[in-house]
Amino acid sequence: MTVTSDLAPRRLRDIFGTFASGLTVITGSTPDGPAGFTCQSFASLSLDPALVTFSPARTSSTWPVLRKAGSFTVNILPAEHQHLAGQFARPEADKFAGVGHTSSPLGSPVLDGALAWIDCELHAEYDGGDHTIVVAAVRHLHARHDAEPLLFFRGRYSGLAPAEGLLEASR
Q1: Are 112 and 72 in contact (CB under 8 A)?
Q2: What pTM value is reported for the model?
Q3: Taking the CB of the first residue and of the last residue of the chain, which one, N or C, has fewer CB atoms within 10 A?
């Protein structure tokens, strides 16, 4: 085994990319209309109180707008919404073009067909190097049970393997 202390950004991306993660789109309502961005770094944080965390890049032009709004919705993407992950990741003027959505109880956009959504209010922010660590208080949530999640692994979109194959491989 070759061990390295190479902490170059490309090497970090390659290694960190071996941890499969889900994809979310964080959305909110602003005076200029709906806003949102793709966020891969999302996790549950606490059950009591109900808190989640995510980490937008410091270079994000969307997060400051959503921060100012104070509330936002985490839309967890299903496998069939790979196109939305790409659409909301680009710094385009209208990321909501052609995207169906309804309003959450707090007034943020819930993307049509989201695997789940979590309506939040900003709880705290912390320095996270080239990202901001956001802690959000959960206020409302909903999930559907008829779809699989969209995953990101080694720089590519991916899905779940059938559970039967995993069980047989572990015997």
Answers
A1: no
A2: 0.89
A3: N
Report the candidate in 11, 21, 92, 80 with the shortest Cα–Cα distance to residue 55.
21
Parallel/antiparallel/unpaired status of strands 101-103 and 71-76: unpaired
Mean pLDDT by 10 residues, the chain (171 residues): 81 83 96 95 96 96 95 97 94 87 98 98 97 98 95 86 57 49
Show the CA angle centred on residue 110, arms to residues 106 and 116, nearest 5°. Answer: 105
Does residue 5 sit in helix, strand or coil? coil
| Helix, strand, coil share of the chain (percent; to 5) | 20, 45, 35
- Which structure tokens are listed for 111? 């993307």
**Cα–Cα distances in angstroms (integers) from residue 75 to residues 51, 112, 129, in the given order:** 15, 10, 25
Whole-number Å distance between alpha carbons of 69 and 108: 10
Rg (CA), the chain: 17
Q: How many CB atoms are located within 10 Å of the residue 29 CB? A: 19
pLDDT for the residue numbered 23 = 95
